[in-house]
Specification:
Radius of gyration: 21 Å
Distance between the termini: 33 Å
Order of helices and strands: EEEEEEEEEEEEEEEEEEEEEEEEEE
Strand content: 35-45%
Largest sheet: 5 strands, antiparallel
Number of strands: 26
Number of helices: 0
């Protein structure tokens, strides 16, 4: 069991250049009595082979980020460290960008042999508000590394690189990129965590969220200034706790993508290759995939009614993934007293079907 304090932000990165994808996992922080949490990066080395990965914890405070005062204004270490890697200076070594809870980015230049040096705190004065969750990737396929950044309000920012391969320049922030605002129907703080993934030459965008739902969008290539298309797929039904953060790579050499999901309780989950990951159907609302399974009123305060042609066990989980309610549904109409629940977002599951519910 991996436990990294509060929240886990994983990213694949081959830190020792052995051809195997290692794992770097940021967090909001470990509990620190009578003081702010302590945020850091954990390094998990892949000691397996190209078809059977095996991860061992090497360092819970890789690069000693818990001791570096990235919060320049207060002169203290930053919280909510969200990592991403990409070559920003054309030396064929991937540099490290860290997003933090103040919406800022920090650049650590790769100096070779697995060493990184802080070269630009508050990198290029990029500020997206709160809880920056960045990804370095060539979005517009012009040969230059760009940045996309999720943030607390659930939208995504796009920073195109107007510089060169040896001198990246990010002087523009395009807000509300793709018209995305995750969890907007439930809460104003969606905590978007974007992962743009090239699937056989076509970009697909996966976005983690506060509720734990993983949203998937297509219609991205040649459409960077317009609205993306929300789709439903196998990955849309994956849930492993609130505040989902994802990373994708083929780590078992079967030509299909694998996924690691971080969650609010500081754990991670591994989902192995599934060709259904790229089979999608357009939908206006991914929560309406089963017409014979209805929950109402939603949002609710005192009661929740379930109508379903299918019977079975009902469970309700909070964003930490803890089961707070379990009951057998033995009729097509079932009522749950929700007055006992605290206000917030929950996930209701009936067999393999699920719904988000909001208790007010």
């Amino acid at each position: 069991m991996v436990e990294l304090g509060t929240s886990a932000f994983p990213v694949f990165y081959d830190y020792n250049n052995d051809g195997l994808q290692d794992l770097i996992i940021g967090n909001y922080g470990y509990h620190n009595p009578y003081n702010d949490p302590i945020s850091s990066l954990a390094l998990f080395e892949n000691s397996g082979n190209d078809s059977v990965p095996r991860y061992n914890l090497i360092d819970r405070d890789w690069l000693d980020l818990s001791t570096i005062n990235l919060n320049i204004q207060l002169g203290i270490p930053a919280l909510n460290l969200s990592p991403t890697f990409g070559d920003l200076d054309g030396d064929n070594n991937k540099d490290l960008i860290i997003g933090d809870d103040n919406g800022k980015l920090h650049l650590f230049t790769n100096t070779g042999s697995g060493n990184f040096q802080l070269s630009a705190p508050n990198y290029q004065n990029i500020d997206v508000g709160q809880f920056a969750q960045p990804q370095l990737i060539d979005v517009n396929r012009d040969g230059l590394i760009d940045i996309i950044i999720g943030e607390q309000d659930g939208t995504i920012n796009y920073c195109p690189n107007s510089g060169t391969t040896t001198n990246a320049i990010f002087d523009t922030i395009i807000t509300n990129w793709g018209g995305i605002d995750v969890d907007q129907s439930y809460i104003s703080t969606g905590f978007s965590n974007p992962t743009l993934f090239d699937s056989s030459g076509v970009y697909r965008l996966f976005v983690g969220s506060f509720s734990g739902t993983i949203y998937q969008f297509t219609n991205i290539d040649n459409n960077l200034t317009d609205t993306f298309t929300l789709v439903n797929s196998t990955v849309s039904n994956i849930w492993d706790g609130g505040k989902s953060a994802i990373t994708i790579a083929d780590i078992n050499n079967d030509s299909n993508p694998d996924m690691i999901i971080g969650n609010l309780s500081g754990g991670i989950a591994y989902f192995s290759s599934d060709t259904l990951l790229i089979n999608t159907t357009v939908t206006s609302n991914i929560l309406q995939s089963h017409n014979n399974f209805k929950t109402y009123p939603n949002p609710t305060t005192n009661k929740l009614i379930i109508d379903s042609d299918i019977l079975g066990n009902i469970t309700i989980k909070n964003l930490l993934g803890n089961t707070i309610y379990s009951e057998e549904m033995n009729s097509n109409r079932f009522e749950i007293n929700t007055s006992q629940f605290s206000k917030g977002i929950y996930f209701l599951q009936l067999n393999k079907m699920s719904r988000k519910i909001l208790i007010q």
